[in-house]
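subagent[fold] <- orchestrator: predict structure for attached chain, return tokens only, no commentary.
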Amino acid sequence: MGTLRNALAVVFSLFVAIALPSPIWAQGDIPPANFTIAFIGDQGLGANAEAVLNLIKNEGADAVLHQGDFDYVDNPAGWDGQINSVLGPDFPYFASVGNHDEARFYGSGGYQEFLEARMTRLGIPWVGDLGVQSSFYYEGIFIVLTAPDIFGANHDLYIRNQLAADNSIWRISSWHKNMRLMQVGGKGNETGWGVYEESRAGGAIIATGHEHSYSRTHLLSNFESQTVASTDNTLVLHSDDPNTPADEGRSFAFVSGLGGFSIRVQQLSGDWWASIYTSDQGANYGALFGVFHYQGNPRLAYFYFKDIDGNVPDEFFVQSSVGEGVANQPPGVDAGPDQSVTLPAAASLDGTVTDDGMPNPPGAVTTTWSPVSGPGTVTFADPGGVDTTASFSGTGTYILRLTADDGDLVASDEVTVTVNAAGGSGSGGGGTCSLGSTNYSGDSSLGTLILLLIPFIALGLRRKLR
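subagent[fold] -> orchestrator:
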């Protein structure tokens, strides 16, 4: 089937593109198609940091979201100049403050002043203390920047209130530090669990740095207890419904701390981790890329971590079921390539089904295989499975259909299976005729023609010999 990215590219070509509303930064909008954000942290100055910025440029990213620790030498002008030298002074570059940025964050010539100047040049308004307790909309994505255990207090309540007032389909909650079990290195419990839990309840992606490695959780229904909601490689975001007693919030967190300063060893592990990339795994510097509004579906994003050597140790998909920006889209269905089998073998059906998680409920897709046409009967090993096998009672050409139903919309795709007889080429099998000591093999109609011509050829030879 190829890579995940190529497979989904085929599936989502079935979707109808949705026109972008305006203005760009109004809440409830959707991102432009294939809008890409690069997530980095713990950067530094010099060749490694510049290599990551060049990677971001070469990948065609549309914005950077930096999870703190900028240059480690308290040089705001030098740090801003490094960004400008690679990405340009008007490139959208957003950041949460890190613990190594505290001394020069505020005041004249500080990091915040450079960040504010960039936002102003781009015409992007924000609310609050930028990089500390602030929020803004950019290209249909709602971004909340906080600084737990660095500046300010009550960051969990701030996150709760910001997300409760938002109806965007994509929300990102960004800060620098971690809780011990939300990183795989030597960091302790610094932020408190509240920022994680409020972000999860609001259906926001959680972006952090601080530890100099890359790690990403599975979809979690509780961060404090590390409760895994799903280990699927497509993570479906949900926000909590305040009108029900259940807690429906689902999200994931990542640490993207390989921005260029250093790479550390792995010290911790756990079954809630989906991907870990440290010096123990041969990590190099890089960035996590999120491609939103992927392949025509505004509620789908493709994420991949890529290092400066071109290695991709992690790739996954995220579907959003939060917000009000987009109506339900039909499932994407691919029944797989056409194929031929020879009796008594069964056909292996390799289907692909994706969905935007709407409507919710049910928040799930029902799939069914069924025969459309053919000369015999078809038996499916698992009619409800996306991948299954099909057995046939006889030779011929069969058309099979894979149908997906999300509870509101139905979509389907078909595959053709040619079933051949054992030891032959199917219902139009070959034949063999003999003339003297020479055998002629091929299509049976050709053999019949040769047999009919033999008497006439023999009669002609006799007359010529006379």
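orchestrator: received. Logging for downstream: The helical segments are 4-11, 47-58, 76-87, 111-122, 155-164, 194-201, 444-465. The chain has three domains: 4-320, 332-420, 430-465.
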